[in-house]
Design a protein that fits this description.
- By secondary structure, this protein is α/β, with parallel strands linked by helices.
- It has two domains: 2-64, Alpha-Beta Plaits; 75-336, TIM Barrel.
- It has helices at residues 11-24, 51-55, 109-121, 146-159, 192-198, 215-227, 255-262, 271-275, 278-291, 317-336, and strands at 2-5, 27-33, 38-44, 60-64, 84-85, 91-92, 98-102, 126-128, 163-167, 181-184, 205-208, 233-237, 267-269, 295-299.
- The strands form three sheets. The protein has an eight-stranded parallel β-barrel, surrounded by five helices.
């Protein structure tokens, strides 16, 4: 971190500020005195230093970080890729393409168990399904909640597929004991109290990028989880809000290689929420596989036209079967190049 001091500061003020830095943080301070200003270079772990707090000090003119503020998620400090491995042997990362598939929302035992069997037969390694649903309208279907989680557990017992489902509140944590991967949705990406609590768990967290958040903000949210001791984080690019109205969101496909360059964490793509249109899911999924995503999370419904939630962005089990086959062949081709 580099701190430029305001000109004409007394030596007493400068010495006092430097003493405060070394006593409050685990850093060393190097000083360069120029003709018009003094520059301080902080060496050490500057993670805990609040840029805005430093910038607000009377003697400070400007603050600039030399390194990224995220340390645990940073590839510089963890060159090897992180691979998320579940007790059943299923993996996300490590050179294989993971498929997470299932309905937007759990609607009945017959529905979720039937879809689970179909997607497993097509190659899915994980079952997704919403029990708690964040909806823009308070009048829209909000999910089956605890009952939905029970039905997901039944589908898990029947098929052996690990469960991936979204959490909405810290208060719901006791209900998620049987959930294998806890999803943090786009709207909760910066719910920092929730992230800190999830950091105390020892199970994988699937963290979705917010609708209007930068990649660095996504990595900083991952850092909140990892700083509490849980380093099993999966990043998910699910489209961001832009001026384009033809699609629900705009898939930032460049986020995949950028995030994988900046971080060691696995990166998956959600083409369902990115587009909001079922016929766009396949080309976006192919793009994600071609560019090196570690997995795909796709909404699959047995009867999309009658789905209680997001039917327009869901594909049928038959369509998922064709997609998984095509994406798998592309993945193998790209890996062979």
């Amino acid at each position: 971190m580099i701190i430029v001091l305001k000109p004409n500061q007394s030596q007493e003020k400068v010495d006092g500020f430097m003493k405060k830095l070394t006593s409050s943080y685990d850093v060393q301070v190097n000083t360069w005195v120029g003709a018009h200003s003094t520059v301080l270079g902080l060496i050490g772990d500057t993670t805990a230093i609040d840029d805005e707090y430093i910038a607000a000090q009377d003697v400070v003119d400007s603050v600039r970080r030399v390194q990224e503020p995220y340390k645990k998620a940073n590839r510089k400090f963890h060159p090897e890729d992180t691979v998320i491995t579940l007790p059943g042997g299923q993996q996300i990362g490590g050179g294989a393409l993971a498929f997470i598939a299932g309905p937007c929302s759990v609607e009945s035992e017959e529905q979720i168990c039937g879809i689970a069997e179909r997607v497993k037969a097509s190659g899915a390694q994980f079952l997704r399904g919403g029990a708690f649903k964040p909806r823009t309208s308070p009048y829209a279907f909000q999910g089956m909640k605890a009952e939905g989680l029970e039905l997901l557990s039944k589908a898990k017992k029947k098929t052996g597929l690990p469960i991936v489902t979204e959490i909405m509140s810290i208060d719901h944590l006791p209900l998620f004991d049987d959930v294998d991967i806890i999803q943090v949705g786009a709207r909760n990406m910066q719910n920092f109290e929730l992230l800190k609590q999830l950091g105390k768990l020892r199970k994988p967290i699937l963290l979705k990028r917010g609708l209007a958040n930068t990649m660095e903000e996504l990595l900083m949210s991952a850092e909140y989880i990892m700083a509490e001791g849980n380093e099993q984080v999966i990043l998910c690019e699910r489209g961001i809000r832009t001026y384009e109205t033809m699609t629900r969101n705009t898939l930032d496909i460049s986020a995949v290689p950028v995030l994988k360059r900046l971080s060691h964490l696995p990166v998956i793509v959600d083409p369902s929420h990115a587009s909001g249109i079922n016929w766009l899911i396949e080309p976006l999924a192919l793009s994600a596989a071609a560019i090196g995503a570690d997995g795909l999370i796709i909404e699959v419904h047995n009867d999309p036209s009658h789905a209680l939630c997001d039917g327009a962005q869901s594909i049928t089990p038959d369509q998922f079967d064709a997609l998984a086959s095509k994406v798998g062949r592309l993945w193998d081709t790209v890996r062979a190049l």
